[in-house]
Write a structure and sequence with these properties.
It contains eight helices and twelve strands. The chain has helices at 7-22, 32-37, 64-73, 115-119, 145-149, 183-186, 193-200, 217-224, and strands spanning 25-27, 30-31, 49-54, 88-94, 101-107, 125-127, 133-135, 155-157, 176-178, 206-210, 227-228, 240-243. The strands form five sheets. A four-stranded mixed sheet has the order 10-3-12-11. It has a two-stranded antiparallel sheet with strand order 1-2. α3 packs across α7 (193-200).
């Protein structure tokens, strides 16, 4: 019995196959598909990576996490601010009732139900079993539907030809990109670059770990303190939580 497939499925399969055959090189000796698949052998839904950010420890004038991300992923091109990619940015929030102001890092929230994945016509936006939301740039057609769907404005579009790319974090003109939680570092038992930089700077406002492991430091912390998601009304269940909001 033949399995029925939709035109969308056929297009996705064609694009994925074409990418593998073509083996597009985006940096010397680096293929996008080889990087996106690297280290995923042991990825399991038993794990869900997430982050807890303590807004009380996040200094308004500190941008160590932003700088660390830019350096780690080569987001250093000289382009107008309107199109400059920022996988993580500092935003200011103000409580309308109390007037209290907060400064906090905003990045892809790695939602359990990511709207960017729902609207992607090619399957380029996808979620790994461990909860990390990524973009397969080989099949990204640059439609930017995911950018419009994201309530956190956490994705950027690459307008310019890129140079001096990082082999561990390849990028491509005409594609959409955003925070990957430094997935290649996670697959090698390291923390994301932003978390490491925040800790080295002495603020220790960012706590990273496995949300599904009751014995992990982040899970224990979440049991002890009140935390919230940004836009909880959307019921996306983000993997990034904020303490002190």
């Amino acid at each position: 019995m033949n399995e029925e497939t939709s035109p969308t499925q056929n297009r996705r399969d064609f694009l994925k196959t074409s990418a593998i055959v073509a083996g597009v090189t985006v940096a010397p000796g680096v293929l996008l598909y080889s990087v996106s698949q690297a280290g995923t052998t042991n990825v399991s839904s038993k794990v869900r990576w997430g982050m807890l950010i303590d807004t009380a420890k996040c200094a308004e004038d500190c941008n160590e996490c932003v700088s660390a991300c830019a350096n780690e992923h080569g987001l250093t091109e000289d382009v107008p601010p309107a199109v400059k990619p920022q996988w993580i940015r500092k935003v200011g929030l103000r409580d309308k009732q109390t007037g209290k102001e907060y400064s906090l890092p905003m990045m892809c929230q790695h939602c359990e139900h990511p709207p960017c994945v729902d609207v992607c016509p090619t399957g380029a936006s996808f979620k790994r079993d461990d909860g990390i939301v990524l973009v397969d740039r080989h099949i990204c057609i640059g439609c930017r539907y995911c950018m419009m769907a994201c309530p956190y404005k956490a994705r950027s579009f690459v307008h310019e030809t890129l140079e001096n790319q990082k082999p561990h974090s390849p990028r491509g003109k005409g594609t959409v990109e955003g925070c990957t939680l430094c997935v290649y570092r996670i697959d090698n038992n390291q923390e994301p670059a932003c978390v490491e930089a925040c800790s080295k700077n002495g603020h220790k406002a960012m706590l990273f770990g496995d949300l599904n492991n009751p014995n992990s430091e982040i899970s224990k912390k979440l049991k002890d303190v009140a935390s919230t998601a940004v836009r909880p009304d959307l019921r996306l269940n983000p993997g990034v939580r904020y303490q002190g909001l």
